[in-house]
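Section 3.1: Structural characterization of target chains.
Under the original work plan, the team committed to producing a structural model for every single-chain target entering the pipeline before any wet-lab resources were allocated. The record below documents one such target. The sequence was received from the expression subgroup and is listed exactly as submitted; it comprises 284 residues.
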Amino acid sequence: MGLSLADYRDLVDLSTPYPRPDLLSGEEKVAACDKLLRFLLRERGLIAAFSASYERKRELVRGYANGRAPLPVPPEILAVQDALFWTESMERGIVRAEEIPEVKYGISLWQGDITRLSVDAIVNAANKSLLGCFLAGHHCIDNVIHSFAGMQLRDDCAKIVAAQGREEACGEAKATRAYNLPGRYVIHTVGPMVGRGPKEADRASLRACYHACLDLAEEMGLQSIAFCCISTGTFNFPQEEAAEIATGTVLGWKMRRPENKMKVIFNTFLPRDTEIYADILKMI
């Protein structure tokens, strides 16, 4: 068995809301980026050279942070990172749960960048290390969420894994704060990795992911949760079948709990996924 919420809640300080810093001006963003890059380069024993454009330096900050081990960050560096990342979150634009129309039974569909959603929790399709994607600038959702949330996210996940004494098993779920994302929490779950085609065990594991996330959200008293398309990216679960499992599992969970009013948002990024979910949700 993995850790229960009670086992790690205090370890990653889930009860304390993360403070929001003041927004930065354009010049302040450049200065913050330079400070972050200097810190990340010095960690690697490298000398900072800032002749590159701001865009290139920001890419380097993300890439070096992606490859960084889960180690504590000095408070003064975290303050710089948080100010920059929170400003970027505001610039991307926030979409609130109540702005997304309901399809039926408290279920909604929204296409876009999940890191823009102001919901109680977004779901991250994690890997079994739970530490995020270490590939510099990779476009998987695990990398994007860790990159925009901040370096604290990997450190929190490492604490959970260390306390658990093993990597995260497929079909479980763990919560961390969302740090510099608009939402309150990130719920991390590891979906099945499919080979030539999904087996019944893969289908059961994917259902378990949705159950575990919903159960955890309910235990935490959350009112809204946004699911990404778990396992359909690099984990290769067929999109149509994954969507059928996702919608069926969520609908069944909600039908068994008519008193629970949690809003469930299926978040899609690719137009094809949006079409698939829209077609399925028309039939509920």
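DSSP finds nine helices and nine strands in the chain.
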